[in-house]
Specification:
By secondary structure, the chain is an all-alpha fold. It is 72% helix and 2% strand. Strands 1-2 form a two-stranded antiparallel ribbon.
Length: 187
């Protein structure tokens, strides 16, 4: 009798600990986004607290993806973030979107939005940049942050479902090519 009980409890514990692939992918993406955003905040913190070498390395890392123009950056204690306002809004909007996703049931549905939605959320940002460069409109902190947040907060609804789909297809392809599957992909 005790053997059956321990077997059942082992089985229950195993089921509780099993996390679905979509949730694992979501967790990895969310953790990556949180670390990315932490790095953006770390740059001014390190500079302000006297860790200039570490701050410089952090700024250099983020300089590969952002112009880091001082005038168009958010500042903390007189030190600019690791990326400009628009990039900060995109990345923090992305993280916020990820944190809201589980509340919407998106992980269960796994459907990406229609391409028209992506076009709709990127157009304001592109227009803000293009019109500013053309001298027809001056980008402000509000337009940079608003357009970045709009774009960034919608992107998780694309990236997470597509990542889940890509992983699923990769696993299926790997299973088909496995010598144990009985299927020879070259025949």
């Amino acid at each position: 009798m005790l053997d059956k009980v321990s077997f059942c409890s082992d089985n229950i514990n195993t089921r509780r600990m099993r996390i679905s692939i979509p949730k694992k992918i979501y967790f990895v993406i969310t953790l990556g986004a949180a670390l990315w955003c932490a790095g953006i905040l770390a740059a001014p913190f390190l500079q302000h607290t006297g860790h200039a070498d570490s701050a410089e390395m952090t700024y250099a890392f983020y300089s590969k993806i952002c112009h880091q123009n001082t005038a168009s950056s958010i500042h903390w204690e007189g030190e600019k973030f690791g990326v400009c306002m628009r990039c900060s809004a995109i990345y923090f909007g992305f993280l916020a979107g990820l944190l809201v996703m589980p509340l919407t049931g998106t992980l269960q549905r796994r459907r990406a939005p229609k391409p028209a939605l992506l076009v709709a959320v990127i157009i304001p940002m592109v227009l803000d940049v293009v019109l500013n460069v053309a001298g027809l409109h001056s980008s402000t902190a509000l337009t940079r942050i608003a357009t970045g947040l709009l774009f960034g907060s919608v992107m998780p609804w694309c990236i997470v479902p597509y990542s889940i789909e890509a992983w699923t297809q990769l696993k299926q392809q790997k299973k088909i090519q496995s010598p144990d599957s009985g299927v020879c992909p070259h025949v």
